[in-house]
TrEMBL record:
Keywords noted in UniProt: Signal
Superkingdom field: Eukaryota
Protein name: Glycoside hydrolase family 71 protein
Signal peptide: 1-18
Pfam hit, one: Glyco_hydro_71
Alphabetical list of InterPro entries matching this protein: Glyco_hydro_71
Length: 438
């Protein structure tokens, strides 16, 4: 799901889901919370065990919970119930909350609020319900058009969430000018969905976050972070075919921007755990894909979770963990952005904003030399202990590899199977191929 500022249109997903998790059962405010957006629409074939496996993996990386993004269809309540059962099975640590996809839910008549209230009330006191400021967290994707039979947005959402309801903490993703926030006291905060990617061909900055923070008047701010974006649906399906720029180590650069302004950010929502259709998934490829198999299968992204864990620790504690082991992370597109392909859907919008580079993120436990190679193209850098970023221009068909060496001895060698850059793409696939050393 998303609002596309890059092509000047509001492009809303036709699916629904959510994400987020917490490491404590405390009912008081937790200073820094990290959740992941989880698309429940992709769990049609999930069992309780599948949910438990995802929760365990996310928790192991420091994620506090999932924002369960849900739509209006009749099968969603059963899946949400399964998620809360699975969370309870794993103990009280991992948290859930519901993010209502308001591109799916009707919201113009008074009775349209009933199902939203029912969801909230059903899990209000569940031990795995994520609480913020001592109250259940409630979020949305969109909903700035909803009036629920009143005359305006504020009265409409107040009638659903605040009047004759037990207290909740409402942090919606309304797509509107932040300068309007003062007129909507129903909002206990705001989720800035579009802050996860840079606009057009620019670098990521904190500017759009600052605009939200400056207009919230001390209310909660939830920032988005996302490692990538590519969707490739033709006019006969969802009619979404574009990218957002993921260059310059976005998975790390966005976290660094957030950490630089850590005092202004209360919560971070990772977009996403499992939105395969938009290629920004960081969890395993499983469940039911929304017709995205042609650009998702074979493109595992879970290695990004280990990079995120490093930054999540810093966000929560205020200090980076010590680097104690050597590790290499690599990612890139497998085809040139400007190459022609026999693909009837066409080259994605915004393709010109991305460059043909291999992106490397390296943990060094001690000073060493790092070498990136693809065919005759090679780059070597000497670096001190810590985190090192490198890039390598990709211009011809070649196999990607990387190595860490000390004193002339190779310590780590990474030559991922399938990581081959080709100049003759079989389709316009702008998804990232991600790999890491053990």
């Amino acid at each position: 799901m998303l609002a596309s500022f890059a092509i000047g249109l509001l492009l809303l997903s036709t699916q629904a889901c959510a994400f987020v998790l917490l490491p404590t059962t405390s009912t008081s405010k937790i200073d820094k919370v990290v959740v992941a957006h989880f698309m429940v629409c992709n769990t049609y074939t999930y069992s309780i065990t599948d949910w438990e496996r995802d929760f365990a993996l996310a928790a192991s990386k420091g994620i506090d919970g999932f924002a369960l993004n849900i739509g209006y269809d009749s099968w969603y309540p059963d899946k949400v119930r399964d998620a809360y059962i699975a969370a309870a099975n794993t103990g009280g640590a991992f948290k859930l909350f519901i993010s209502f996809d308001m591109t799916s839910f009707p919201c113009m008549a008074p009775e349209h609020g009933n199902i939203i209230r029912e969801y909230i009330n059903t899990y209000y006191v569940h031990p795995n319900q994520l609480l913020y400021n001592s109250h259940p967290l409630v979020s949305t994707f969109g909903g700035q058009h909803c009036t629920f039979g009143t005359g305006n947005l504020n009265d409409g959402w107040s009638s659903v969430l605040k009047r004759e309801m037990r207290p909740n903490h409402f942090i919606p993703a309304f797509f509107m000018s932040p300068s309007d926030f003062a007129g909507y006291p129903v909002m206990d905060g705001a989720f800035n969905w579009n802050s996860g990617w840079p606009p057009a061909g620019d670098d990521i900055t904190f500017d759009r976050d600052a605009e939200y923070v400056n207009n919230l008047g001390g209310r909660s701010y939830m920032a988005a972070m996302s490692p990538w974006f590519f969707t490739h649906y033709g006019a006969n399906t969802y009619n979404k075919n574009f990218i957002f720029r993921g260059d310059d180590w976005l998975v790390a650069s966005r976290w660094e921007s957030i950490l630089e302004h850590r005092s202004s950010v209360d919560l971070v929502e990772i977009i996403t755990w499992n939105d395969y259709g938009e290629s920004h998934y960081v969890g395993p490829i499983e469940g039911s894909q929304p017709g995205s198999e042609s650009w998702v299968n074979g493109f595992d992204h879970t290695a990004w979770l280990d990079i995120m864990q490093y930054y999540i620790t810093a966000f929560k504690t205020g200090a980076f963990p010590a680097v104690s082991a050597d590790r290499i992370f690599l990612w890139a597109r497998l085809y040139p952005a400007g190459a022609d392909a026999p693909d009837s859907i066409g080259r994605p919008f915004n393709w010109q904003f991305t460059q043909d580079y291999l992106w490397a993120f390296v943990f060094l436990a001690a000073p060493a030399e790092i070498t990136l190679t693809c065919g005759p193209s090679s780059e070597t850098k000497s670096a001190l202990r810590g985190v090192v970023k490198m890039k390598l221009l990709l211009s011809q068909t070649c196999d990607v590899s990387a190595a860490i060496s000390r004193g002339g001895l190779t310590i780590v060698k990474l030559a991922p199977e399938g990581f081959r850059f080709r100049t003759d793409p079989p389709m316009y696939n702008f998804n990232a191929f991600v790999a890491a050393s053990p």
